[in-house]
Amino acid sequence: MRRDIASFKPLNSGRLIVWILFAVILLTAPLLLTSRLSQTILSQMGIVIIACLSYNILLGQGGMLSFGHAVYTGMGSFLAIHTLNRVTDGWPLPVSLIPIVGGLASMALAIVLGWVTTQKAATPFAMITLGIGELVWASSLMFPGIFGGEVGVSGNRVTGANTLGITFGPQIQLYYLIAAYTFVCTALMFAFTQTPLGRLLNAVRDNPERVEFVGYDPQTVRYFAFVIAAFFAGISGGLAALNFEIVTSEVFSSTRSGAYLLFTFLGGTRFFFGPMIGGILMVLAFVWLSGLTQAWLLYVGLTFVLMVMYAPGGVASLVMMNVRVAMWGHWHKLWVHYIAMVLTASVTLTGVGAIIEILYHLQLNSALGSELTFWGTTLNSRGLNSWLGAALVMLTGFGLFERCRRQFALKWDEIQSCIEEEIKRRESF
């Protein structure tokens, strides 16, 4: 089944439709979501999509597990904010081009650090990136003249010459700048996957010894891919500097690098659009979920564990699996099973969420009393009934979910067998 998923590629006309649809979504999203908060969230999604796609050049396309990608998004942010302040002082540079400055700065840093970083692959590469990430993060606090110390560096994006009355003061104006960069950077990174260097990078990921045997240096291929990924990461950082108008040393943190890794994986590294899904999920987790509960990081961690267990290919793989089934006309056989799994999973998650919220309330908010509200229901963190009720809901939901999942697996295998038979029948003609 995995071979079939990996080999599935949409038609060129289908790709064109997807790109047009992507552009339409970027153009119309702020017209449908008109609040300032919604436009801010959309802007952050565009920024993180570029960052996750650039990270996937390393992880998904090159098999390079990096724990220090925030070094390059962060460097782009700092150079962009310093450039913004120079523009305020009179530099004749349009504000709209400042993200490119961030990209070039990160590329320059990658040219210096990348040669050392890409000398090794696999685990040594991951350890080197982790060490460099920690080194840069620590150094950012040691040089307050450049990185601003704990306060950071701030700027004002409403500066420089106004073109057609565009000041980037209103969030909607900045959103469309970010949307333009998102579309162009996404298109360029997709084009990179179709180049000989992009194909070589896939070959280095799968079999570096064979690449070396045919006359190419795997380390050189990794190095160029590393530099390209850093350039797009720097553009993402530059856009973030314009969006928030302040940059602190937190942009270099291992937490930020870990977030890029986690959500790129959740989105799916085997398909180009997977990191885009991961970027959207990352913003929703950091902005929406964190506002709902103090335990949001725990929920993110649990989601990651469940995805590794049940869908290691990420959300993108689930989408493409079902696209393939739908193209062969069998999806109508699955929708009942999907509804059953969604309902039972919701029951399970309700029980799990109740237990987590009771624990967090008991440990962190006990001074506010023993009662808390969860999904409109009052629970008592010190009451046995609340604990037993949450545990009963969780176990009942999990048992039903496992039963539905096994039935789904049987039906899925049956459908895959039908598809294989149809393929063989068509090939025989």
Order of helices and strands: HHHHHHHEHHHHEHHHHHEEH
Distance, first to last CA: 23 Å
CATH topology-level name of the largest domain: ABC transporter involved in vitamin B12 uptake, BtuC
Coarse shape: globular
Helix content: over 70%
Assembly type: single chain
Proportion of beta-strand residues:
under 5%
CATH architecture field of the largest domain: Orthogonal Bundle
The major beta sheet can be summarized as: 2 strands, antiparallel
How many beta-strand elements? 4
The strand order across the widest sheet is: 1-2
Report the radius of gyration as a whole number of Å.
24 Å
Indicate the structural class.
mainly alpha
Number of domains: 2
CATH class of the largest domain equals: Mainly Alpha
Helix run count: 17
Low-pLDDT runs of 5+ residues are: 1-11
Mean pLDDT: 90
Which labels suit this protein?
disordered N terminus, 17 helices, 3% strand, two-stranded antiparallel sheet, ABC transporter involved in vitamin B12 uptake, BtuC, mainly alpha, single chain, globular, 2 domains, two-stranded antiparallel ribbon, 429 residues
Offer a quick outline of the entry:
This protein is an all-alpha fold.
Folded structure, characterized:
74% of the residues lie in helices and 3% in strands. With 429 residues, the chain is mainly alpha-helical. It has 2 domains: 16-312, ABC transporter involved in vitamin B12 uptake, BtuC (Orthogonal Bundle), CATH 1.10.3470; 328-428, no CATH class. β3 and β4 (377-380) form a beta hairpin. α3 (36-58) packs parallel to α8 (171-193). The model is unreliable at 1-11 (pLDDT under 50).
